[in-house]
Design brief:
By secondary structure, this protein is an alpha/beta fold. The protein is 39% helix and 14% strand.
């Protein structure tokens, strides 16, 4: 059964990252240097920006892998077709396994015509992940799952034999989250995570 994230407080390492919008997106700090402070300040875990591990030196990668504090890997992989996109999905799945993260967050692209491709590739990617790893789709403006009905439909289409309902959720941000809660198209746990 997938881990519950209800009533937990996680720190997003990308929030402290000054280079998150830079072209090369090279991390400016070692997350492991902050883990003790995060724990002392009351956080239940970390949402680790993938580059804080993928672009880290060997010492930092080892420290993160030895930690039990990485709760969510924040991935910015694409779900379009192609060898490079597939390689990055494999790399992200390997990272999630190495960090023993109970969840991974992702975004879909912006092209509605590509939604069937995105969904097929999310399903294939989910099979690469540990069976108990929860996949969390971050739905916000600029993605095909921006609107509540689209988010609910995407979630219905992703779920199935390979991705049971307790393993896939959507994180709905801002106005979208409030609309979905009001409409009742998403369960409490997937909206609570974004509160």
């Amino acid at each position: 059964m997938a881990q519950s994230f209800e009533n937990k407080l996680y720190v997003g390492t990308i929030l402290l990252e000054r280079n998150r919008w830079a072209a090369e997106r090279q991390p400016s700090y070692a997350v492991s240097d902050w883990q003790r402070r995060f724990r002392e300040d009351g956080f239940d875990g970390m949402e680790l920006w993938e580059n804080h591990a993928l672009q880290a030196d060997k010492r930092e990668r080892s420290a993160l892998e030895a930690s039990s504090f990485v709760t969510i890997v924040n991935s910015y992989i694409g779900f379009e077709d192609g060898d490079e996109a597939e390689r990055k999905r494999e790399e992200a799945a390997t990272l999630v396994k190495r960090l023993r993260a109970p969840a991974v967050k992702f975004n879909l692209g912006a092209d509605p015509a590509q939604l069937p491709v995105y969904i097929a590739n999310v399903k294939r990617w989910a099979e690469m992940l540990p069976a108990d790893c929860r996949i969390l789709c971050e739905c916000h403006p600029g993605t095909v799952a921006e609107h509540p009905d689209a988010a609910a439909e995407m979630l219905r289409r992703v779920r199935g034999r390979a991705v049971p309902s307790d393993r896939a959720s959507v994180l709905l941000l801002g106005r979208t989250r409030r609309l979905v809660q009001k409409a009742g198209v998403c369960d409490y746990s997937c909206t609570r995570a974004a509160s």
